[in-house]
Amino acid sequence: MTKKQKKMLLRILMAAALMLVLYFARKAFGQQVREPVWLCLYLIPYLTVGYDILLKAGKGIKNRQVFDENFLMAVATIGAIAIALMENSGDYTEAIAVMLFYQVGELFQSYAVGKSRKSISALMDIRPDYANVEADGELKKVDPDEVEIGTVIVVKPGEKIPIDSVVLEGVSALDTSALTGESIPKEVRPGDEIISGCINLSGLLRLRTIKEFGESTVSKILDMVENATSRKARSEAFISRFARVYTPVVCCSALALAILPPLFFLLLGQAPDWGDWIYRALTFLVISCPCALVISIPLSFFAGIGGASREGVLVKGSNYLEALSKTQMVAFDKTGTMTLGVFEVNGMHHSSMDNERLLELAAHAESFSTHPIARSIQKAYLEGAVFRDDGESAERKAEPSGRKLDKARVSQVREIGGNGLVARVDGLQLAIGNARLMESLGISYVDCRQVGTVVHIAVDGAYAGHLLISDRIKPTAKEAIRALRAAGVKRTVMLTGDADGVGRAVAEEIGIDEVRAGLLPGEKVTAVEELLAKKTERSVLLFVGDGINDAPVLTRADVGIAMGALGSDAAIEAADVVLMDDDPKKIALAIRIARKCMRIVHENIGLAIGVKLVCLALGAAGLANMWLAIFADVGVMVLAVLNAIRALFTKNLR
Amino acid sequence: MKKSYKIEVDCANCANKMEVAAKKTPGVKDATVNFMALKMNVEFEEGVDPKAVMQDVRKNCKKVEDDCEIEL
Q1: Mean pLDDT of chain A
Q2: Distance CA A185, CA A173 (A)
Q3: Contact criterion met (CB < 8 Å) for B11 and A291
Q4: Which residue of chain A has the CA closest to B34?
Q5: SS (H, E, C) A268-311
Q6: Which of A25, A76, A163, A562 could form a cystine bridge with A571, CB 3.0-4.6 A?
C-alpha cells in the first residue's frame, strides 16, 4: 500500500469506529442530548471520511466540471443529512455510511489496480539496467543507452543481455523465458547472434554489440507492451462513450424524479410528499457513478495483454485482442511458419551400401559446390546425420560430430549442366544428380514417393540410392491445427509460393483444409483479399507468417501474426500480434487468451450495467434505499475488478 | 511529433477525462491516456513547441481532475 492508501484506510477505520460509537450512544442517551449537538457529533466522522470529496466537488463546480462522481456523492450525502434534519429523524448514519462505502470502493480500486499494474510490469521486467563495457582491461558499468554499435561488452552469469549482440567468446545457456515463454535454456557459442532481454545462466560471455539499445529487441518489446493499451478496443471505446452519457442522463433523471412526481400529485390535489421523492432522487445519484465499468474494462484488457505477453504472445493493442477472439478463418504461410524453413537431408532410400558411407561419399563429391542442395548434403554429413532403418533421418545430436571434408580424397570433378556432377572419391566413380543425369548416363533409378528434392547417386555406374532433401514440418504443426479447430476456427488455408505438390503434401500431413500454391508474394495479397471478400462481416481472418517477406500480407489481413519474429524489425512493424518463438501452437493459445479476455469484458459490462439498471428501477420505485445503492455500486465494482484480474491467468489455456 | 509522458492519476474515469482535456488543448493533434501504464502519449501539431503546449495540457487536465499530475 502506498502512503496515500494507508492514510485513506486510517480515515475509513476512524470514521467507521466513530459512527458505531455514536450509533450506540444515541440509543442510550438519545433523549438527554439536544438534536443540534447530535448533528455536530455526526459531522465529525462524516467530514473525516469525506472532506476531500466535498473539496473536490467544490473545485469541480468552480472549474465548471459539474457532473463528476465527487459532486454526485456530495449532493447525495448532504441531501440525506438535510432530509434527516427536515424529518427530524436524526438518521445521519446513512449519509456517513454512503460516504464511507464509496471511499472503501475507491481505496479497493486503487489498491487492486496498483497491485495488478505491478504484477504485470514484473512480467515484463526485462529492461537491463547496465552494460559491462570493457575498457583498458577493466569492466565499467554503463547505461545501455550510451553503448555504441560494435562495442565489446561482458555479461556475467545471472546478468541480462543488455543489447542485441554476437558472441565473441564463451559458451553459455540463455534463459529466454521472459521473451518467448520457452522454459528450456538456449545454448550459445561463439558466432551466435543473441537478443537482448535473455538472462545469461552459466558462463561468462564476451559479446560485440550489433545494434543500439533503442533498436534492440528489448526496447522494441517494452515499447510495444507499454503502448499496447493505447489502441483501444471497440468495447473500450464504447464504455468511455457510455460513461460520458450515463452520468448526465442519470443526474437529469434524478432531478426529474425529485420534481415531477410531487408536482403531479400537487396538481391532482394530493400530498406531494417531497421528502420521499427527493430521497429516491438522491438514491439515483449514488448509483450514477460508472466506476465499475470504467475501471474494469481497461483493466481486463490490460490483464489479458499482460497474460499473453507472459506466454510469449505480444498483442499490439486491445483492438487486436478483440479481433483475435472472433477468428474464424486462418491463413498460413508455409515456409518458416508451418515448416522449419531449412532444407535438410531428411531421408536416404534404396541405398545399396551403408547409409552413412554413401552420405560420406556424396558429401565429398559435392564438397567443391556451393549450391544450396550441395550445401545441405555437406551439412548433413558434417553434423553427423544418422538414418533410421526405414531410411528417414533420425534426430541429430547437438554436439559436433568431429567429421571433416577431406578434399584431397576427391578428384576429377565435372559439373553436368544443371543436372548434377560426376567425381571420383576414394577411387570410386560417383554420379550425383537428378533423374535426367541418371537417364543421360543410362542408369535405371528408383523415384521417390515423398515430396522434396530427390538427389540420385550412382557408384561405379550402378544405382546406389537417393537422398531426399526437404523442408521439415514443425513438430507441433499438426497439433497446432487441431488446437485451432478446437478453438472454433472453421477454415484453414495455406498460401505458399512452392509447387502445388509440395504444398498439398504438407497441408495433408498437418490437416489444413485448403491450399493455394505457386503464389508470388504479390499474389498472396490477392489471395488474402479474395478470402476477405468471402467471409462474413463479423468474422475475422487471421494471417500467420514468418514475417520476413510477408509484411504486405500481414498488414492486409484483419489480424496479422508474425512468428518467431524477434529481431526482424519489418515484421514487428507490420504485424498486429507477434509470437516471440516460432511454435505454431501459440496461435490457438493467443485466440484462447483473447476469447477469455473478451468473455470477462462482456461479463463485466453485463454485470455492471445490469445491476445498475435494476438498482435504478428499484430506487425509482422507492424499493431501494441508499444503503442498497452504495452496496450495489461498490460491490459490483469489487466483483468486476476481481473478475478482470482473472484475464491475467493463462495457465489453464495452454 | 509524438511524445510520451508519465502521469499520476487515481481512477480510470479521471484518466478518460484527462484524455478529453488533452485532446482539446490547442497544439495537440491527438492524445491518448493509458491508465494502466500511467502514460500519456501526445501527438503535437507541426511547428508547435511541445514544452509550451504541455504546460497548457497540464493546466487543462488539472481543471478536470484536480488530483492528476503530468511529469514534464
Answers
A1: 84
A2: 6
A3: yes
A4: A230
A5: CCCCCCHHHHHHHHHHHHHHCCCHHHHHHHHHHHHHHHHHHHHC
A6: A562
Measured distance CA(A570)–CA(A547) in Å, rounded: 7
> For position A356, what pLDDT does the model report?
83
Chain segment A629-648, per-residue pLDDT in tens: 888 888 888 888 889 888 88
Length of chain A, please?
A: 654
Distance of residue B13 Cα from the nearest chain A Cα, in angstroms: 6
- Chain A interface test: which of B9, B36, B60 (most A C-beta within 10 Å): B36
Cell of A322: 478483440
Q: What is the pLDDT of residues A551-560, one digit of tens each?
A: 788 888 899 9
- Which 3-state string (H, E, C) describes A578-647? EECCCCCHHHHHHHHHHHHHHHHHHHHHHHHHHHHHHHHHHHHCCCCCHHHHHHHHHHHHHHHHHHHHHH
Contacts of A184 by beta carbon, 8 Å cutoff, 6+ apart: none
Contact indicator for A336, A546 with CB cutoff of 8 Å: yes
CATH number at residue B14: 3.30.70.100
Is residue A603 scored above 90 in pLDDT? yes
Cell matching residue A475: 513438430
What domain range is B40 assigned to? 2-70
Tell if the CB–CB gap between B38 and A243 is shorter than 8 Å: no
ipTM of this predicted complex? 0.78
- Rounded CA-CA distance A599/B51 in Å is 42
Cα torsion A567, A571, A575, A579: sign:
negative
CB-closest option in B13, B34, B66 to A230: B34
Cα–Cα distance between A327 and A321 in angstroms, integer? 10
Residue A13: per-residue pLDDT: 93
Please report, rounded to a whole number, the percentage of residues in chain A having pLDDT higher than 90. Answer: 15
CB contact (8 A) between residue A229 and residue B11? no
Q: Given its phi and psi angles, is residue A136 left (phi above 0), alpha (psi -120 to 50 degrees) or beta?
A: left
How far apart are alpha carbons A643 and A603 in whole angstroms?
Answer: 9
| Structural domains of chain A sorted by starting position, each given as residue range(s) with its CATH number in brackets | 131-220 (2.70.150.10), 300-339+474-596 (3.40.50.1000), 340-472 (3.40.1110.10)
DSSP SS3 for A544: strand
pLDDT for position A69 = 77
> d(Cα A274, Cα A278) in Å, to the nearest integer?
6
| Adjacent-strand bridge partners of B43 | B2, B30
Indicate the number of domains in chain B. 1
Amino acid A485: pLDDT: 92
- pLDDT tens digits, one per residue of A20-52: 898 888 888 877 777 788 888 889 999 999 898
> If you compute the radius of gyration of chain B from its CA atoms, what whole number of angstroms results?
11
CB contact under 8 A, A295 and B12: yes
Predicted local confidence at residue A565, as pLDDT = 58
pLDDT at A179 over 80: no
Give this prediction's pTM.
0.78
- Whether B36 sits inside 8 A of A229 (CB atoms) is yes
Residue A117 has pLDDT above 90, yes or no: no
**Largest distance between two CA atoms of chain A:** 124
List average pLDDT for each run of 10 residues in chain B, which is 72 residues long: 82 79 90 81 87 90 82 80
Q: In this structure, are residues A215 and A202 in contact, taking their beta carbons and an 8 Å threshold?
A: no
Q: Do B63 and A65 touch (CB under 8 A)?
A: yes
- Which of B38, B66, B67 is the best residue to mutate to test the A interface, defined by the most A CB atoms within 10 Å of its own CB? B66
* Angstroms from A256 CA to nearest CA on chain B: 25
- A105 part of contact set with chain B, CB < 8 Å: no
Which residues does B contribute to its contact with A (CB < 8 Å)?
4, 10-13, 16-17, 32, 34-39, 41, 63-64, 66-67
Which of A192-206, A428-442, A588-602, B9-23: highest mean pLDDT?
A588-602
